[in-house]
Amino acid sequence: xxxxxxxxxxxxxxxxxxxxxxxxxxxxxxxxxxxxxxxxxxxxxxxxxxxxxxxxxxxxxxxxxxxxxxxxxxxxxxxxxxxxxxxxxxxxxxxxxxxxxxxxxxxxxxxxxxxxxxxxxxxxxxxxxxxxxxxxxxxxxxxxxxxxxxxxxxxxxxxxxxxxxxxxx
Length: 169
Hints:
Number of helices: 10
Number of domains: 2
Distance between the termini: 48 Å
Number of strands: 3
Strand content: 5-15%
Structural class: mainly alpha
Strand order of the largest sheet: 1-3-2
């Protein structure tokens, strides 16, 4: 079984609905419909169980994004930070939060634009996509439960994150 495939929870939920339709259309059991959906997806899933295991791997990253417990560092700086009991480097955070990160990139002021427009306003969709893929690289960490307990307020959390930053206020 290949374990390096990731699938987000939103997609899993849509696939469950699709399996219900297939169950009715093909007059198969629910389990058979789920397995068919997993296989026909085209990502190399062997069965529904394989798909669920792949989703389980990304859930901590999704949960961290949903809670706002993600810290991104410029890739050059992030490489110098070692995962510890407070900050956990998670390569799936980039995948789990891609839409959020892309939206943030789109709505950031383009420093090269004399009119101080956002990237979304100043670049074509193709150029924006290229900029995001090539120049918007970060090293992402999730905050552990211990970090959330130790730094319960936003002010304390920001001060904690600044300890890791090379550009303190």
